[in-house]
Amino acid sequence: MVGASVPMVDSSMYSHAGGQLDRLCRAVGFDPEERRHLDLLRLLLGESGELTVDAPAQFPCNVADDTTPVEFSVAFDANGECVVRVLGETVGASDPREFLAQVAGEYGLVTDRLDAVADLFLPHDERRGPFTLWYSLIFRNGAAPRIKVYLNPQISGPTMADSLVSEGFRRLNLGEAFDPVVKHALRRGERDNFTFFALDLDDDPLSRVKVYVSHDAAEAEDAVRAGQLVPGADPMLIREFLAVLGGGKGPFEGRPLVSSYSFVEGMGGTPGNYSLYLPIRSYVPDDEVARARVHAILAQYDFDPEQLDKALAAVSERPLRDGVGLIAHVSLRMGEFGSGITVYLSSEAYAVAPPRKRPVLGRMT
Ligand code: TRP
């Protein structure tokens, strides 16, 4: 635990990440009077937020490559809206659910569904895998922030993952959802794995349950097949997304592609949305190349690429070609709950990954 003697320092994680988040919200046009994003970030980081970013992290965390416990994202929605989110872990807290207890009342969170699956995904005995509980803080202009939780299907080891997800669905009245997901997204044995089981916590009949599958060394056609479970996930758009951002048809042998499906109760187990995540940082030499590719895909869907540049400037001042991973992932969302492109931005609070060499064009002789 962090003691009370930790001094407030300007280079604290909270001031670093809070500055980034605040600039990001303003950059996409949110009300500058709004403070709730900072209040929530401060609570999420807790005491560890007071630690300096100038010394190595005290707590291991897989939210981001450099162990920063938060990652930002900007979701461009086909309805014209821009949503800012923070994915984060309450590192150093003795009970990861404490943050929820602190904010549930004020933000009207409903934890029934989390409670229904807590014994599966938050077991009291030994925990394994890269995390226990992550949060997503979701900010829209002029609206109350929303909160989502991510649970880890690998928490009791890889052999238990499928049965945890299957039982989780059953308890949330989505028992029919499991088999079709396995059939479409877990076709390649050990190379396809459940990685997250996520729940919206708002008091809304459209509150979603999302399940994520990572695909090691997958081809574009594996993503196409995964997408086919969702009416409206267009195979051409999936192929184009991977070609433009990932540079081809695969196999994507760096960090894995990830699929996710969104469900709401009462839909008979058919997901309403499919999302495909490309960890673009594994497939580009540096962030200048990543930015150019994201510009191309944004233009394709008539989103304003300038918004991306403003978002990048809000998070980092470093020259884009001096590192790789500021743009960590890009995702394509398709379906009846809303379509769009989401760009994930690293805080790089602790470290910037060095760029790789760009390919060199040989001279014709
Ligand atoms: N850093 C982890 C990874 O890259 C977890 C993660 C953070 C992630 N944001 C994500 C995974 C977005 C998929 C999509 O795997």
Automatic annotation (TrEMBL):
Organism: Amycolatopsis silviterrae
Keywords: Transferase
Name used for this protein in its record: Tryptophan dimethylallyltransferase family protein
Keyword Transferase: yes
